[in-house]
Design brief:
By secondary structure, the chain is of the alpha/beta class. The protein contains 18 helices and 18 strands. It is elongated, with a radius of gyration of 27 Å. The protein binds ligand NAX, adenosine-5'-diphosphate and potassium ion (K). One of its GO terms (molecular function) is metal ion binding.
């Protein structure tokens, strides 16, 4: 699914109106029907409904929804905010239709003062104050109303956007003046802010309603952000020829695990083996020998000369991919070995965890990273890497995109919707995965998967996209059998085969 900017959403509406063609008031009627159906799916006609409508088209949608709910025997009270005595054309038309239909039990147009109605736990508030047309934080009477709704015990359904929330950047928004919905019914496409962790508190549950906006515009319009889906990935999946052998299926090198952190090396190595690589070699401190041999008998072990930490870079010409960092520790010796390793490695590299932390501690080394490098930070690791704590997830994402462009590499910012930032400035959000995966070691598994895919011959972009998709899908399949609370990182590895099978079928 493409993610359009607020400006593109506006264009999409206009393009649809011109080319379908459809009158803008009829398009609003279509949107309102879809919204009304979705509301009726969730709340019965015994629910008292209070509709707050703004002066723009979001308000127009809300007035049309109010009329339709009333026609379906809901008790509906409507408050239209027209403090500047200026309604959009379609909002004004829907006000006329509402008044003419005489179905709602109460209609007030607010031009000056407003006495808010009582909102009880039984009330359903329909929030149609502002949608994608918002261009500054809410203030004054609108802000007071939002706070009144948020403090009330009523349930809230937001039309298109929780009022006050911007489509993209909410860094400087006034957070208490944004509606906190229980359900957001967004029209046609998800907006960028809906993918960000710090905006989830406003959305509640999110449903996307198809209102048949122009498929031509949607297909032909270039975007910089998209959400990847299974249908995007299936064509990328490689199938094995019958006559291949382990020598042609790629050899991955994993440098991971300091003493006491052998688990990270085990998880990354096992995940790598499960991701199609023909051979996997693990380079790890001597003291990990016994445990690694038992835990991953399929891997070749290469012992560091040190007992407890990674101390020296290794020859890498025989490998097709390198993963470095999980559980590596952050000793100064390991840091020097890390940059030495990165400098001499010719094959694609994925750096994770302590590998990233050590780069963060040696900012000058950031200039020495090879083109195409992959980094897989979680938000904290990312903030350390760029040396600042971001005040919003939008800001963090923007910095991740800038870093990918600057390095001409890949920054995979992990989260509920992990975001892959590519060298050309494009961002791909992942759609699989669940909160059961918020458990130690699941990042090591992702690193192993990406290394396996790189070794198998996928290019960096595909290895990252397919890797994050398979990782999340394995987590989703595991949760069906095991539940979220008990899921551990090894379970993700155990369900990788099923995830691959699903994409291959
Ligand atoms: N063209 C159409 O018929 C369609 C419109 N749709 C609806 O239209 C909405 C967008 O409508 P609009 O573009 O009219 O915009 P909104 O209704 O979101 O906002 C209306 C106007 O409010 C003003 N405004 C912005 N920020 C403000 C603030 N902080 N305080 C006070 N006023 C502020 C702006 O001048 C803006 O144009 C969508 O969210 C969706 O609900 C959908 O029904 C799809 C089809
Ligand atoms: N709530 C969540 N929803 C979806 N995926 C999640 C969630 N929490 C964690 N994950 C995934 O699990 C992984 C966690 O990585 P990370 O934080 O590096 O873990 P660790 O350092 O313990 O290995 C990431 O790939 C992330 O996308
Ligand atoms: K709204």
């Amino acid at each position: 699914m493409k993610i359009f900017t607020a400006a593109q959403i506006h264009e999409l509406d206009n393009y649809t109106i011109e080319h379908e063609p459809v009158k803008s008031i009829d398009l609003m009627e279509r949107a309102a029907k879809a919204l009304t159906r979705a509301i009726m799916d969730e709340w019965t006609d015994r629910t008292p409904v209070v509709v707050f409508a703004g002066p723009g088209n979001n308000g127009g949608d809300a007035l049309a929804v109010a009329r339709m709910l009333a026609e379906n025997h809901y008790q509906v009270s409507v408050y239209l905010f027209n403090i500047h005595d200026k309604l959009s054309e379609d909002c004004a038309a829907n006000k006329e239709r509402l008044v003419y239909a005489k179905k709602v039990s109460h209609f007030t147009e607010i031009t000056l003062n407003f006495d808010p109605p009582e909102l009880t736990p039984e009330t359903l508030v329909v929030d149609g104050l502002f949608g994608s047309g918002i261009n500054k934080p809410l203030s004054g009477g609108f802000a007071s109303l939002v706070r009144y709704i948020n403090q009330s015990p009523a349930k809230v359904v937001s039309i298109d956007m929780p009022s006050g929330l911007m489509c993209e950047d909410n860094t400087y928004n006034v957070r208490q003046n944004i509606i906190r919905a229980d359900l957001t019914l967004t029209l046609q496409q998800k907006k960028l802010s809906m993918m960000l962790t710090d905006c989830q508190q406003y959305l509640g549950r999110l449903r996307v309603l198809d209102i048949r906006l122009s498929p031509d515009y949607i297909r032909d319009t270039e975007v910089s952000c998209r959400i990847q889906e299974e249908t995007d990935l299936i064509p990328c999946v490689r199938h094995r020829g019958d006559f291949v052998h382990k020598g042609t299926m790629g050899h991955a090198l994993i440098i991971a695990g300091s003493y006491g952190m052998s688990g990270a090396a085990i998880l990354a190595t096992r995940a790598c083996l499960r991701s199609g690589a023909g051979k996997v070699t693990v380079h790890t401190p001597k003291r990990n020998y016994g445990i690694m041999q038992v835990a991953v008998p399929e891997a070749v072990l290469q012992m560091d000369r040190e007992e407890t930490y990674f101390s020296d870079s290794v020859e890498s010409q025989d490998y097709d991919a390198l993963a470095i960092g999980p559980g590596l520790g952050q000793s100064e010796n390991s840091a020097i070995a890390l940059i030495g390793q990165i400098r001499r490695t010719q094959c694609p590299i994925v750096v994770d965890a302590d590998g990233l932390n050590m780069l963060a501690n040696h900012q000058a080394w950031m200039q020495q990273l090879p083109l195409g490098i992959i980094m897989t930070p979680h938000p904290k690791e990312f903030d350390r890497l760029v040396g600042v704590t971001s005040s919003s997830d939008y800001e963090r994402l923007t910095k991740a995109r800038q870093l990918a462009e600057h390095l001409q590499g890949y920054v995979l910012l992990k989260g509920h919707y992990s975001a892959l930032c590519k060298p050309d400035g494009h961002i791909v959000f992942n759609s699989t995965g669940n909160s059961g995966m918020a458990t130690a070691g699941s990042g090591d598994v992702l690193t192993g998967i990406i290394a396996g895919l790189l070794a198998r011959g996928y290019d960096q972009a595909t290895a990252c996209q397919l890797g994050m998709y398979l990782h999340g899908l394995a987590g989703d399949l595991a949760v069906r059998d095991l539940g979220k609370e008990s899921l551990i990182a090894s379970d993700i590895i155990n369900y990788l085969p099923k995830a691959f099978l699903r994409l291959e079928d």
